[in-house]
Amino acid sequence: MTGQADRHTARWRAYLRDCDALVGFVEPMQVCGRVTRVAGLVMECVGLRLAVGSACTVPLPSGARVEAEVVGFDGDRLFLMPQSDVEGIVPGTRVYPVEASVPRPGSVPHPRRRPSDRARHLPVGDKLLGRVVDGAGRPLDGLGPLGSDEVAPINARPVNPLDRAPITETLDVGVRAINSMLTVGRGQRLGLFAGTGVGKSVLLGMIARYTTADVIVVGLIGERGREVKEFIEQILGPEGRARSAVVAAPADSPPLMRLQGAAYATAIAEHFRDQGKNVMLIMDSLTRYAMAQREIALAIGEPPATKGYPPSVFAKLPVLVERAGNGLEGGGSITAFYTVLSEGDDQQDPIADAARGILDGHIVLNRHLAEAGHYPAIDIEQSISRAMHTITSHEHQMKARRLKQLYSRYERSRDLISVGAYASGSDPVLDQAITLHDKIESFLCQEIHENTGMQQSLAQLTSLFD
């Protein structure tokens, strides 16, 4: 009886210590600032001392509220970026800080020590599967409230690179050209580089439907509203949507919502990874994310650098991308596909160039292939998977390299062949490329409703040379 009483007393003491610690989270009075200026996308506020990234709310005379975030400061003036339209705000409107929710007794009593815990918390968990939400976690699908009690900060702490599990396993994405020629590793981060209208959304939908990942998280950032609905209902389909969580921040959303949507989609993927699941994160597109940051940075006075992009854009890209990847040893993983828009099909676009340097591979879609009816329009000459050599067999690598050599040799001599200027027997490698060209073209093409698994892809690759 004495031991049981001691344990009971110890639990009560621990509970009271937690309650005592939680008292420190309560402000003795509610502080507020006031709006002094609204110019373009930015509001200026005085009277508050808040860290960059803190959330605020601005009540309007109509009873509505405008959510905003601190994106910078100058002296005692805070620069706020609203999440919605600023119509209705008048000079002197009050601005209230939004504190992180007070933790329950028994939880870790140190949420104020980390900036990520003071950032905005949004719903995560299994209740988001099959749902479509915006960048603030509000349902867009008309299916009612999410009903999720789990929340997480949208800006989590990065994983120590030395603690990450290495990429050792392949991930089947159901696309023959990728499985065989650009094999994806579980926990790899790849870029899908393409101009407009060459089939990147369709390819993403195929990957989402046919992948063997446990959970799919889709971030539709800066896309047209029509494309959002089309991707969800037609390209993703009921089968893919059932195990997917979709975060949509279309082009008409404020730039802060587009930034937050990308961070929120990553936070959802991190939550499932921490549960030990293998997650497929699809972000469409990384370029719109960079454009949103450019709008914010220019609005608060940051000088432009490369092609109008301020330096903060190139600092934020790796911060977002590095959150994906493998977790701790024995844990889950996030395999990420980020689409990168190449303006005018220019592969030297600054965002495309920066993305190539921070991703683990890139898949380039070629407009000429798309115009010729070659789908998916993957240019295997310009594409590469940097993890392929560590996760595939030597035999697989040699066959993929051989196919690439034959494809490249044919493309370089296409004009000679088409006008009949090439004499058979002059180049044995080119002779084989001409003989196998139709088979190679058929191998690299795939219908949208065709699912080709990893083993089937390798068998078909082998059969090309038999």
From TrEMBL:
UniProt keyword annotations, A-Z: ATP synthesis, ATP-binding, Bacterial flagellum biogenesis, Bacterial flagellum protein export, Cell projection, CF(1), Cilium, Cytoplasm, Flagellum, Hydrogen ion transport, Ion transport, Membrane, Nucleotide-binding, Protein transport, Translocase, Transport
Region (Disordered): 100-120
Species classification: Bacteria, Pseudomonadati, Pseudomonadota, Betaproteobacteria, Burkholderiales
Reaction catalysed by this enzyme: ATP + H2O + cellular proteinSide 1 = ADP + phosphate + cellular proteinSide 2
EC id: 7.1.2.2
Domain AAA+ ATPase: 186-369
Entry's family note: Belongs to the ATPase alpha/beta chains family.
Pfam families assigned: ATP-synt_ab, ATP-synt_ab_N, T3SS_ATPase_C
PROSITE patterns: ATPASE_ALPHA_BETA
Organism: Massilia soli
Protein name: Flagellum-specific ATP synthase
Cellular compartment(s): Cytoplasm
